[in-house]
Amino acid sequence: MASDRMATPQSSSRQSSSRQSSSLSSSPMSTRIQSLQVDSVQRWMEDLRHMTEVECMCVLQAKPIGVEEDSQQGELIVASGVGAGDHVARNNLQTLLRRALVVSTELGKMFQRLEKGRWQRVHSTAVRANCHVRSLVHEYSAARSTPPEMQKYEKSLLEKCMELTNITERCLHTDDEFFLKSMREAIHEILTDVSDSFSNMIDMALANEIRVLIKQIESSDSVHSIGSAISNLLSLTQDGPQLCSIIAKEGAVVALFKICRQDRFKDLYAHALRTVASICCVEEGINQLDKVDGILCLADILTDESSVEAARAEAAAVVAQITSPHHTSTQHLASFLESMHDIVTALIKLCESASCGEVFLLASAALANITFFDSMACEILLQLNAIHILLQACKDRQRVDTPYSKDQVVTILANLSVLEQCTSEVLQEQGIERLLLLLGEKPSSASPSEGAACERVQQKAAVTLARLSRDPDVAQTAIQLKAVPRLIELCRSPTERNNSDSVLVACLAALRRLAAGCPDSIEAADHQQLIKPRLVDSFLLCSNMEESFV
């Protein structure tokens, strides 16, 4: 069975706005008439856009003129005042990220326009990019002392930007195709160097700002000050894996676990652990967690009855993240096994006592991942009466209120169903009825992620039913509860399974398992099409594949 596991979802990603431009088409005659109506001053102003002195632009750019918050990307963003105290780091980070986005956009435009040979646009974009880079360097140097290694990148980058501006200007004054072709290659090479140098410089600047935040966490005794720094780090983690890698390399995970080991900062545990979970979406974060025995700290928080639910839920989120299938490294799982019994016990208790759907989702997601990499976890869960707890939770809409939560429950049940002793408990808790309800799971909205979650629920419910149906009592119960008609409906109706091939395969497998134990439960026509042929032939028949195999 190819089962999906759920890692803790990252909350959000940076979205950039794009400017749309429109152009009016007109006939050659109307264009000529229109150009005659333009006075000389307006014509001069049009030409001036492409004749601006770079040095003057940069000096003008550096003036502290205020701007509106909703300035568009293509406009020049000038320096804004920076507040004191906790707001300084946040403003510096926001300025860096905003500037980086603007420069990256301009460089991307240059690559596109260079390929099309639009030399006037290439040069004007080079001028803007040069201005943005110089302004960024000027503003950052004024706000923060620049590390020596970063100064080298700044100098090299500024020189390359100026070279780019000069060389693109030369291309405006010739129509020699051979010259322009050679210049295109040279500009492309310089532009690539500028992009790489700019990326390295921004990474260094961000690392410098992150070090300031980490120092604030490590050196401050103020809950407010530490909380503010953690909030800034958490905000940064939402900007993607690259920033998470930088944050991890600078030692943020170590600093955050120091907070989680001090009773005086108990109010910050949940906030710190949420940040750790976000950082651990990358291997560097997990490696740092392993080095500081973070798993032991997580176990302590999860098993501490005095810990608030929010802190235990965020600890569960970290567990779900580090056991995610997306990580290729499994070295950290060796130390996890030492604390697995305590962690699994705490997680199933959290599922039982969860006050809301989010807490249940985090705890069950962690359990779902754990049941994949060690069969001992399944045995522990059976001993802890997990089937009863999970199936009871499914009846409580306050805890299991979304397809995402149901996905975790049915994943755990699917993994538990490989154990023979699981069968009697499922029957006792009326688990077959619950599986049939899960086979009917449908999205309540048009959200693609919700639709995908419903598909996983249906697939895993069918897989679980197939595994449990090894037992004749389970097979007989499933048939009495009309599992066969529902499985046939899912096979024959693509809309019922949301056109999912994985659901189709799982339902065909479950049908064949039930037919093997109770042949009379399936009508002759269905048997002829869904049971008798090879699995692949039944699959092709039901999926209505319009392919030619000639």
Task: Provide a descriptive summary of the structure in words.
It contains 28 helices and no strands. The protein has 550 residues and is mainly α. Among the domains are: 122 residues, Nucleotidyltransferases  domain 2 (Four Helix Bundle (Hemerythrin (Met), subunit A), Up-down Bundle), CATH 1.20.120.330; 120 residues, no CATH class. Helix 14 runs parallel beside helix 17 and helix 16 packs antiparallel against helix 17. The longest helix has 43 residues. The N terminus and C terminus are likely disordered. One of its GO terms (molecular function) is cytoskeletal anchor activity.
What labels describe this entry?
550 residues, disordered C terminus, mainly alpha, disordered N terminus, 0% strand, Four Helix Bundle (Hemerythrin (Met), subunit A)
